[in-house]
């Protein structure tokens, strides 16, 4: 385990990702955790993240000095470096100029963190700091410098403590990965043995221990990547003691329910060479949801109603599972980090908790087998479980589904039109191999009618908006530059094939200031 202590940097998650990409397991914890807890984790190396604070501020976050006595390598990044210089007898000062952006370091000593580099070589890096190191603690030497930061990289080679003023974890430091590799493999001598396969074996063991030999577990299956992989993983561990409940809320995409059911029937076959069968309960509650949504226009109301009805339906079904003690959820690491990170939940991140509070209400313990993984790792785990590619690369789909893509009041008729048009859009994206190049793509039926002409007649029908965005995490997004030819084809197919639409528009707004969904 590599322990990453978080001092509140926006890049802390990136550090974790870069380390995991090297097949080394790491965890992020707030810098405030007690030394005893750190010792108990037995980290093989420690990374101190950057952070927005200055070591001179009152109450600036710090770390127990014992971390430097653990005898394991330590890497301080930006604030992390300033902090250990401050704690170990060096000096830190306000830089005359805040340094932010690209810089070029000159390598002075190609050892330790800079193993594999050449002395005298110039390397592009990304700086972002207000304070800088004025003098190094005893026993430390310079590894690289810039005109502005004489100690851009430094280290104590015998104690294996290193620091960098810049950010090796960001893409703007193109050779940052080499530095992290030098730290992990040359300095800390860690084996790159954390693979999806090894994760699956360990996870199955853990799930069996957690749930025990007799108890049952329930999983709310949406058909999305996370809940699907979680369900398949848990089914490998406890076989038919897992019951998956899939609720059709009436606002799913065209053929969605049938596809999810089919996919999980196929999983049964995959499960056969593992531990058992997958129990799937398919509840068609569309009418219940549609009745509750009748006449509702406000988006927040729609969300609340769908969340509430989901809980009602789910609880009713779950109550039929005897001896259930655990609820399986596909929580991922970014959600976990959000709740443990040093600064508390960051303001920029918007999460949509549709069914918060469910486990407490139902008196079930949580089983979250993916809570240490990033999305791309979940996909790798799914692939190593034999799950099909198209399932693992599905776009995210919001809990309230088409309800928030059918603007204003929802009617069955509008939903049907939306489903048909949306299916054409998605089908064409797949056919043109554009589907996986966008983060999300969907159609929105607008509460607007416009005039058209078809044959000799005048039409007065709904307008449909197409939305396709690129994004890394859904927090910010840009509209996808889909080829004109492609848009032309989709538009003409929709207007010709879907009754009720006579005009198609393409949404060219980025997030922020717009959001990805329209409601
Ligand atoms: P926005 O529209 O806020 O969406 O830019 C960001 C991401 O979240 C999804 N989304 C939701 N997911 N329940 C969900 O489970 C919701 O109520 C909800 N609203 C938006 C949206 O599809 C996008 O991926």
Automatic annotation (TrEMBL):
- Ligase among keywords: yes
Keyword vocabulary terms for this entry: ATP-binding, Glutamine amidotransferase, GMP biosynthesis, Ligase, Nucleotide-binding, Purine biosynthesis
Tell me the ranges covered by the GMPS ATP-PPase domain, including all copies. 194-394
Q: What is its EC number?
A: 6.3.5.2
Subunit details:
Homodimer.
Q: What does this protein do?
A: Catalyzes the synthesis of GMP from XMP.
Task: Tell me the protein's name.
Answer: GMP synthase [glutamine-hydrolyzing]
Gene that this polypeptide is encoded by: guaA
């Amino acid at each position: 385990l590599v322990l990453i202590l978080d001092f509140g940097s926006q890049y802390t998650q990136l550090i974790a990702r870069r380390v995991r990409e090297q097949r080394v397991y790491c965890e992020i914890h707030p810098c405030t955790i007690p030394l005893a807890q750190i010792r108990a984790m037995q980290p093989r190396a420690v990374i101190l993240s950057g952070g927005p604070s200055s070591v001179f501020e009152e109450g600036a976050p710090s770390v127990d000095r014992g971390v430097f006595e653990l005898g394991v390598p330590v890497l301080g990044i930006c604030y992390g470096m300033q902090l250990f210089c401050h704690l170990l007898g060096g000096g830190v000062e306000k830089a005359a100029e805040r340094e932010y952006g690209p810089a070029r370091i000159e390598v002075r000593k190609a050892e330790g963190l800079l193993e594999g580099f050449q002395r005298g070589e110039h390397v592009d890096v990304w700086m972002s700091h207000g304070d800088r190191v004025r003098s190094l603690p005893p026993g430390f030497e310079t590894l690289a410098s810039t005109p502005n930061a004489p100690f851009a990289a430094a280290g104590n080679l015998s104690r294996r403590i290193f620091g960098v003023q810049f950010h090796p974890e960001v893409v703007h430091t193109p050779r940052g990965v080499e530095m992290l590799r030098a730290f992990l493999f040359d300095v800390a001598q860690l084996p790159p043995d954390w693979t999806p396969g090894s994760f699956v074996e360990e996870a199955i063991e853990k799930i069996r221990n957690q749930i025990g030999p007799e108890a049952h577990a329930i999983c709310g299956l949406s058909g999305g990547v996370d809940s699907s992989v979680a369900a398949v993983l848990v089914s490998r561990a406890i076989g038919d003691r897992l019951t998956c409940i899939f609720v059709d809320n009436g606002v799913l995409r065209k053929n969605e329910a049938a596809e999810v059911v089919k996919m999980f029937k196929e999983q049964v076959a995959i499960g056969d060479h593992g531990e058992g069968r997958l129990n799937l309960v398919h509840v068609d509650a569309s009418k219940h949801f549609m009745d509750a949504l009748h006449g509702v226009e406000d988006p927040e109301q729609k969300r609340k109603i769908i969340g509430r009805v989901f809980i009602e339906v789910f609880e009713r079904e779950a109550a039929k599972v005897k001896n259930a003690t655990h609820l399986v959820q596909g929580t991922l690491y970014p959600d976990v980090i959000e709740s443990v990170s040093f600064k508390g939940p960051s303001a920029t991140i918007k999460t949509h908790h549709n069914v918060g509070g469910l486990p407490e209400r139902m008196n079930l313990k949580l089983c979250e087998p993916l809570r240490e993984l990033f999305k791309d790792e979940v996909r790798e785990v799914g692939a190593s479980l034999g799950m099909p590619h198209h399932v693992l690369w599905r776009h995210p789909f919001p809990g309230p589904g088409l309800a928030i893509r059918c603007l204003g009041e929802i009617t069955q008729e509008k939903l049907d039109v939306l489903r048909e048009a949306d299916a054409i859009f998605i089908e064409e994206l797949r056919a043109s191999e554009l589907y996986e190049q966008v983060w999300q793509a969907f159609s929105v039926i607008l509460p607007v009618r416009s005039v058209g002409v078809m044959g000799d007649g005048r039409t007065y029908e709904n307008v449909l908006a197409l939305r396709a965005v690129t994004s890394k995490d859904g927090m910010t997004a840009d509209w996808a530059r889909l080829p004109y030819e492609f848009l032309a084809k989709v538009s003409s197919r929709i207007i010709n094939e879907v009754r009720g639409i006579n005009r198609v528009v393409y949404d060219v707004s980025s997030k922020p200031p717009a959001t990805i969904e329209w409601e």
